[in-house]
Amino acid sequence: MSKMDLTRRGVMKTGAVAGAGLAVPTIFTAGSASAFVNEPTGGSVTLGFNVPQSGPYADEGADELRAYELAVEHLNGGGDGGMMSTFSSKTLDGTGIMGKKVEYVTGDTQTKSDAARASAKSMIEKDGAIMITGGSSSGVAVAVQALCQEAGVIFMAGLTHSNDTTGKDKKANGFRHFFNSYMSGAALAPVLANAYGTDRKAYHLTADYNWGYTTEEAITSATEAMGWETVETVKTPLAATDFSAYITPVLQSDADVLVLNHYGGNMVNSLTNAVQFGLRERIVNGKQFEIVVPLYSRLMARGAGENVKGIYGSTNWHWSLPDEGSKAFVKSFGTKYGFPPSQAAHTCYVQTMLYADAVQRAGSFNPCAVVEALEGFEFDGLGNGPTLYRAGDHQCFKDVLVVRGKENPTSEFDLLEIVEITPAGQVTYPVDHPQFAGGALGNCNPGA
Amino acid sequence: MFGLNKKDSVLFVLVLFLTMCAPFLLNPFPQGSELAQFNAGYPDLMQRFVIFGIFAIGFNILFGLTGYLSFGHAAFLGVGSYAGVWMMKLLTMNVIPAIMISVIVAGLFSVLVGYVSLRRSGIYFSILTLAFAQMSFSLAYSVLTPITNGETGLQLNLDDPRILGVSEVNGSIPPPNLFGLSLRDSAEMTFGNWVFTFNTGYYMCAVLMLIAFYISIRIFRSPFGMMLRAVKSNQQRLNYTGLNTKPYTLAAFVISGMYAGLAGGLMVAMDPLAGAERMQWTASGEVVLMTILGGAGTLIGPVLGASFIKYCENIFSKINDNILHQWFAFMPDGIEDVIVFLVHPFVGKGWHLTLGLMFMLVVIFLPGGLVEGGQRIGRLFRRRKPDAASDASQTKPAE
Amino acid sequence: MDALLLQVLNGIDKGSAYALIALGLTLIFGTLGVVNFAHGALFMIGAFCAVTMQRILTLSYEVVDPTRTDFLGQPLKVAVPYVEKFLGESAGAAIIDWAVPISILLAVPFMIFIGFAMERGLIKHFYKRPHADQILVTFGLAIVLQEVVKYFYGANPIPTPAPDAFAGSFDFGAMLGMEAGNIIYPYWRMVYFFFALAIIGAVFGFLQFTTFGMVVRAGMADRETVGLLGIDIDRRFTIMFAIAAVVAGVAGVMYAPINSPNYHMGMDFLVLSFVVVVVGGMGSLPGAVAAGFLLGILESFASMAAVVEFLPGINQIIIYLVAIIILLTRPRGLMGRKGVMED
């Protein structure tokens, strides 16, 4: 280091080079004439589908992508039109969006905030995507939502269940169709009280990250309102693969219900471990010991195999729903791919339709016009009954499904049975509910 | 030039040329053409090239010179990022304080980690650094959530105080700026079907990378650099001569930690969000791979390695079946499907496979990394020249 | 007291997995001097041998059941495994039930093949190359193996249950004469522990009591001299590599019922197993095994609620913290030899 003779002359020269470098962009005039970022000018419009394609959620991402491809096909007039025929708004006519053919680009979020943002940015900057959608975790959804707000494009969230997405991290340009932790709690608690009684002691194992916290909070407050007691809440590391060390203390406690606030691989492993340790055969205080999984995913339930039988949880949507919208969607998805869609696929398909419809109704791709069209929008026929996109936090309010692992599945897709369809009214909360406190939507940002 | 010898000057000018003309060089294919998929000249990726270039250059100062293989360098990038975002939350959206604090905090953290880890060498050193980084990652992801915002990543909010700036502008968070010059601003130049984007943020990063690169050259050529090389070749002998090598290795460790901090600071300056995954061992492993792939111990190798990996990650992962079918649409249907079927596993969701194969191919056939590949090509040309000369000399007498 | 005993039990089965992986890794890493980042992938491939065996045994033909319908409203096709057709329903079902133990028959030859192929085809050329190159090539290989598995089996975890006979749990506390119902322990984890002990014993015995093992140990100590004695040490190293692969593979097979395997599981174990090997000390097999059990048990203790309350987050970092403390107090880990990978 001793011979770093940065002479004054040398420094000045370096500075001159740097200055010249900085001066370059000002030679050209910045910005363009369009009113908002990535305004589609030709005969087509580009949407960005940003889903996990590597890492633990890759299969869920692949299912989301299938749904997106199906949605694009339907929007462009191909296939059987799917939910377009059951959707209460009839503006979509199979000629793309506002007469422009729908094209799409795909990217890999890797279920990492950084990678997801990089992928979304490349869609916006390189491919000219006017809307970004997808994702399979709340961390990614919040990160990409914030990016879209800054960049001035619309974000239609995929699978994200944390309260924060439309709570403290809500953004004007972001919309969520999926349900959330609070709704899971509100829908599950009465069913659990019905099935297991109101005098129960619950032990919570919670994934040690954001989504885990909001789910634990939602479930404890909802079940405590029913008269349950929360004995203990224990955080488990995200990287944990073997939960035995967290399951065994349950045996030492007098708890008679175990709540697993886990998702994905964590859920598969913790549930498998809990069953291995004989918790389901256990009798405590004269009561049968029970396990609850607040957020079910059929794809993940498959990984747990036999262990899910009889276990309660909630989901956003399930392919066995009997309404016309769901049937139409299952039919067109099943015919194309040979198996029924997952809830992730459903929410992604619906989000794409909702976006297309909003543009059509607004008569403009301008994000601010789209936001206006979606805010307070009431619709039906997309699988969850009458639904409201609330203006105050951009969250959809609709029926929530309480499901249970099926005892006698007829196929590898037939793992869950619907126990109850909790009406939207029961899971609705005020915008300023304490679990959603903090944060503000801000104003819509059209970019340019 | 600037106290560099001729060879280094040529290299520096080359890097200068490459970074300044990157918007042209990385966008060789016209818009709308099928090959446009391979264009990398958009701001985000160009910024990533240079930022990870800085990270790898810094890593190379430690690993390339001293041979100490740190498996926890991402932690310095991570703490730098967090410090940077906090600066932007509390103080101002001008990125200079954020970048400065990033470098300082990463430097301090690396003093701590380096002081402890450098008590061991070889694999024991690697595992110590790995352990520190993994601890930082785990804690940032969970119990430190109040500081780091856990899984979601630390980001700006509308209600941040920003003492020297404004909290919000028309309900939006103000963009990061350099003395009022918004880093998101881009100028576009259209040339026929070609569109070139010149982004303020990119040029700021590029200038900083050039400075970082220059300092790295000076370190490589300085007596300090010689001392570090001596540590690599035989530390025991140095110790026997009565020299305490620790101050030198610690200095190298801290310098490379500060480079990582600079990279972290620039990352949040370009995109104000700091996620905990930045500190995970895979991120540390990535910079190791970048450096080795490019050519450890060479000046330009790490930059090449960084660009290569980021290119794979961002370009190959976006090629889906739809695009493949467009590319091969000119072929007869049957053959088209076969080709798409064959290419499919290597692109889109299979981009990791391509990356893994490239790692293996490079290390098997180019033991010195990508730099060696460049040298071989160079040698090929040089060898041809004398051949041509000798041909000429042979043909002459025949005349 | 009960709680402590339970955590010791939890620790030993976690430790068994760590020890087995570390044992194979230390054969390659600590003795052949190759930094093998593909070792986790070998473990993963072992687990997928179990999955594959399950798939093979449940190869099925479809029978249409007109009384039931599938999700599209068409008659349901019920899959009937061929084994049940050929061997009768009960015998077939029993064989499918025992898929995981049976898959060891597949895993051993397959892992030997993988080990040979890897060493002969790739690693052999990297003995003299810098560690950096070894990292790059084995990391690349690990990614490739992982992606190939992902391509064929998807990214989701795949349930591979233990045979019904071992599926439940037993009351360990009652066996020791303590209060019933407090110390419950699954059978399969016990099986895993004894299996690990058997494998560890076999590897040690092989190296300690056979001429082959003696030569290998000599080769580890001084490869050049052994070579000068006219012994073909290279061939023996190949065999050692194959043994390491088999150890990792069967560890994976038996682990499959504990946690459903996914393509990513190798990477999850990779870093941990390097930490275990280094904490145990480079070049020491007993060190690796001891460190595996030690870290497994400490990790279990650290996750007790009382401990976490006292030191928040300790369960997340305990392994790394212990690694740092051990490496600072004992320069070469628990039982490391001097001069192995120290520069």
Automatic annotation (TrEMBL), chain A:
One Pfam family this sequence matches:
Peripla_BP_6
User: Ranges for the Leucine-binding protein domain?
Assistant: 45-406
Q: Which GO terms describe its biological process?
A: amino acid transport
Keywords of the record, alphabetical order, are: Amino-acid transport, Signal, Transport
**InterPro entries for this protein:** BCAA_transport, Leu-bd, Peripla_BP_I, TAT_signal
Q: Which domain of life is it from?
A: Bacteria
Q: Which family does it belong to?
A: Belongs to the leucine-binding protein family.
Q: Which PANTHER family match?
A: LEUCINE-SPECIFIC-BINDING PROTEIN, PERIPLASMIC BINDING PROTEIN OF ABC TRANSPORTER FOR NATURAL AMINO ACIDS
Protein name per the record: ABC transporter substrate-binding protein
Native source species: Meridianimarinicoccus aquatilis
TrEMBL record, chain B:
- Extract the GO molecular function terms from the UniProt entry: branched-chain amino acid transmembrane transporter activity
Taxonomic classification, please? Bacteria, Pseudomonadati, Pseudomonadota, Alphaproteobacteria, Rhodobacterales
Q: Transmembrane stretches, by residue range? A: 45-63, 94-116, 123-144, 201-220, 247-267, 287-306, 327-347, 353-374
Ordered alphabetically, the record's keywords are:
Cell membrane, Membrane, Transmembrane, Transmembrane helix
Q: What is this protein called?
A: Branched-chain amino acid ABC transporter permease
Instruction: State the compartments where it is located.
Output: Cell membrane
Q: Which organism is this entry from?
A: Meridianimarinicoccus aquatilis
CDD domains cross-referenced by the UniProt entry? TM_PBP1_LivM_like (cd06581)
Membrane topology qualifier: Multi-pass membrane protein
Q: GO CC: one term? A: plasma membrane
Alphabetical list of InterPro entries matching this protein: ABC_transp_permease (IPR001851), LivM-like (IPR043428)
TrEMBL record, chain C:
Q: How does it sit in the membrane?
A: Multi-pass membrane protein
**One GO CC annotation:** plasma membrane
**What keywords are annotated for this sequence in UniProt?**
Amino-acid transport, Cell membrane, Membrane, Transmembrane, Transmembrane helix, Transport
Query: What GO molecular function annotation could you give as one example from this UniProt entry?
Result: transmembrane transporter activity
GO BP annotations, alphabetical order: amino acid transport
Pfam family name, one: BPD_transp_2
Q: Which residues form a coiled coil?
A: none
The transmembrane segments are 15-35, 42-61, 91-114, 192-216, 236-257, 269-298, 310-328
Q: Where in the cell is it found?
A: Cell membrane
Which family does the record assign? Belongs to the binding-protein-dependent transport system permease family. LivHM subfamily.
This protein is called what? Branched-chain amino acid ABC transporter permease
